Amino acid sequence: MRFFSPRKLSKYLVALLLGMALPYSLLAQDDDDDFDPDAFEMADETPIKRFCTNKITNLSPTRLVGISFDYLAGYTMSSEAAAGLSTTDAARYSPYSAPVNRNSGLRLDANIPLVSKSNIIANLTASYWESRYDIDESRVNPAHQIALNHARHPLRTTTLGALIFKPLDEKRFLVFQAEAALNGNYNFGDIKPNFGLMKYSATAIYGWKLDDNRNLGVGITRTYRGGRVLHIPVLLWNRTFNDRWGMELLLPARGHARYNFSTKSVLMLGYELEGQSYHVQSAPGTNTTYGFSQMELRKSEIRARVSWDKSLTDFIWFNVQAGVRPMYRYELAQRENADAFMSNRMGMPLYFRVGFNLVSP
Amino acid sequence: MNISKILIGVFAVLLSTLSPAAAQSLDNPSDIIVGNWQPSNGQSVIQIYKGKEAAGEDPKKLYGRTIWLKEPNDLETNQPNLDKNNPDESKRKTPRKGLVIMKDVTFTGSKEKLTWGEGSIYDPNNGSTYSFEATISPKNLNVMEGRGYIGVSLFGRTDTWKRLVKK
Fold it and tell me: With contacts defined as CB-CB under 8 Å, which chain A residues touch B140?
């Protein structure tokens, strides 16, 4: 039985092919200038939860790995008995001054993403900072023992921690940060670090990403930035005003106004509060420092600065900073929680830092 | 020859080409990634396609073009958003919509392990280009895990993309 003649059949087939090719071309979307999202749907109906990111427009880049060199110009270190000591005690700590030619030191920082997905970012953080005091011992009074200790034993800070950004939805997020720090004048030689005196700090923030140009968060922190442990509220507030100007605040730790020459060149003007509590020891077989073989140094300084970040390649950025370093606290105590017995004025020298950073996607 | 059988055969072939699943056959795993995809932020749709020689692309590799933006225009000027962060100054007036942001991606897996890599992805938000790799589970060909990274995969970020099909 024949339904069609061969000629009719070929006509039908051509018409059929043309008819089928038209919708296929639409499906293939070769030229999608008029792509209509309403005409499409998710092939997978499993609801996908959307999350905010930790970034806003033009935010300064997140540093993954960094190496920098920190340099402070010369100043005078003046030490005296702390306020509040009895006359007898104060007499033990006569005032002395010593010229510090410079402070300098290497800083290594790492912020390694262990998990980096849209619903969580978990980073391992680590750092090593050193601060060497260039002091001519021949110009230091032998009784100015903290200056002599510094001349011989640089201060070091080694940290290990974690930083977690957990978005809850498209607007709300949490930030957790925790860190253990080994601070002191240890050298892994004759002065061993005391792991029992590690300092632990942590921060928790609850925030809102208001839009692509603003995020805001409030929280609480346990910090040593003031030289001794503090439990204080924190405010996170990043805002981009326009293509050029913005601000990045994490108060009280740091605050900067930001100027974007471009997305690859960022100038920051502001400050950072840096501080730690250090375990200062005397080398075995040498004179003790003010009669103590070990004590606590509470150091807190402000780095008021102009900082410029410029990309050299997509992911390697150069950073240079210049500013002044006023000292907020630099005092010695016999041990943690004890009252200070000596305070020090450390001038307000110029400071410079240069570094290279691998930055985050 | 039985004409009915011929017609049925022709219909079967044509219908199979119409189905979105046609491009997702495990018989040709490298092309499973071809199609329209939406990143998790819902701000854009990326069409992944085989390279077109006429456009100077390698037909053996895969490319991704932005075919839709939630906000195609600058809110202040109401003009199309441009690729203003491109490190190549001559490209800064190119509209973001239509940009080929994924380039030179090749299939690096097998039928059992659907992975693509060796290509790059461009982020017009900052003008940076990252290495790119993608994974699709053979159990669900409509969800892709795309990862942009720097140098080694450790330094990167993963995002979930979902396939879009015609209603």
Answer: 44
